[in-house]
Amino acid sequence: MIRLQDIADMAGVSRTTVSNVLHGKTKRVSQETIDKIKKILEENDYQPNIGSMMLTGKGSRIIGFVIGYDYTHGYPSTMDPFIGQLLASIQNQAEKIGYYVMIIGGSTEKHVLEIASRWNVDGLIFIGYSEGRYRELRRKLNKKAVLVDTYTLQKEYDYQNVGIDDYSGGYQVGEYLLEMGYPNALYVVEETKVLANEAVRRLRSDKPFAGLCNEKRWQGFKAAMEKNGNFCSIRRFIVVPREAQLRKLQYERMLPQFLEAGALGFGSDYNAIEMINFLHDHGIKVPDQLSVVGFDDCMYAEFIRPRLTTVRQDVLRKGITAVERLRRMIEGETLPEMYVSAPVELVVRDSVRRRDG
Fold it and tell me: Where are any strands of DSSP class E within the chain?
């Protein structure tokens, strides 16, 4: 196996210079030298000893991907199309810049602390964490971190967050369904761990949940539905259970209400596709009898029949952005923006039909 000193000898530089290039510390290294070293590294297929790097405390080249919930849609969270696509993007980008990704179950803060410290991760990317949970963890964990889709109740962010314009996404769904003749459309989201303790109180209150992506989408949906002076009641914000069988029971119970509304907007493509299959099993045609809109534009949106009308967010770009911002923080850069929000767009396909009259 080729050693670091061998690379240094070939390049005619010191071992320290080679090490600095490997670790991205190149401020005092010329571009010519950097290119020369990288070429030698590539030609000799040099692989750094990660164990040694961790033992020296000089960085592990490991990024922890923390998933804040164990299950989604009633299945392990890594089976979720959105999580899978985000993870693939993070892993691909991390490998391009010489990092490795470690998946960390984040259902308990104690577990995150233990794994992040034991493996000396250079930084963390969080998904499925509320602001409160992260603030509690941050008091105990001295690691660079970027959060994905975490919203603050404060006036300004004091942590790095990469998200999308959820309000606009919800607004586009509401506006489109209103224009298609569905002024009484419903908005359906799946209960998450964050929502679980609030679900009953929400159904009894006119106060919406602040700080959640689904809440922002609902606010946009509601605003669009009310733009012509109509009123959109909180009762049109439907929270369904996480467990698949319980969701099916609620769908069966609410089916007359769904048909009366004529159209459903969903907080995820998964739930929208699940509903299309449920309706098919009950002999109800989409969109002839009930129109359906999703959110995310996952790879399955075009596979389902009818093809799903949905809100497209660039999940791959979201993962790349999270990795790049974390890399810059690890390298000591102070980022002026604390919150990066990407635009979204409605993709019209076949799952909505214009209502006559």
Answer: 62-67, 71-72, 75-76, 100-105, 123-127, 144-148, 160-164, 186-190, 237-240, 263-266, 291-296, 309-312, 339-342, 345-347
HSE-up (13 A, CA, CB side) for residue 115 = 19
pLDDT in tens, 23-80: 777 888 999 999 999 899 888 877 766 555 555 556 789 999 999 988 888 888 999 9
Question: Given phi > 0 = left and psi -120 to 50 = alpha, else beta, which region is 110?
Answer: alpha
pLDDT, residue 34, reads: 92
Please check whether residue 352 lies inside any domain of the structure.
Answer: no
Q: What's at 175, amino acid-wise? A: E
Question: What angle (nearest 5°) sits at the alpha carbon of residue 118, between those of residues 50 and 96?
Answer: 40
* Both tokens assigned to 238: 């439907």
Query: Per-residue pLDDT tens for 74-130?
Result: 888 999 999 999 999 999 999 998 899 999 998 888 999 999 998 999 999 999 888
201 and 302 in a single domain? The answer is yes
Per-state percent for the chain, helix, strand, coil, to nearest 5: 45, 15, 35
**Distance in angstroms (rounded) separating the CA atoms of residues 36 and 34:** 5
> Which 8-state DSSP code applies to residue 106?
-
| Containing structural domain, residue 190 | 166-313
Angle at 89 between CA 87 and CA 90, to 5 degrees: 65
The reply to whether 188 falls in a domain is yes
Q: What is the pLDDT of residues 145-182, one digit of tens each?
A: 999 999 887 888 999 999 999 999 999 999 999 999 99
- pTM for the model: 0.80
Question: Within this chain, do residues 249 and 134 fall inside the same structural domain, yes or no?
Answer: no
- The number of distinct structural domains making up the chain is 3
Q: Please report, to the nearest 10 degrees, the dihedral formed by the alpha carbons of residues 14, 19, 22, 25 taken in order.
A: -90
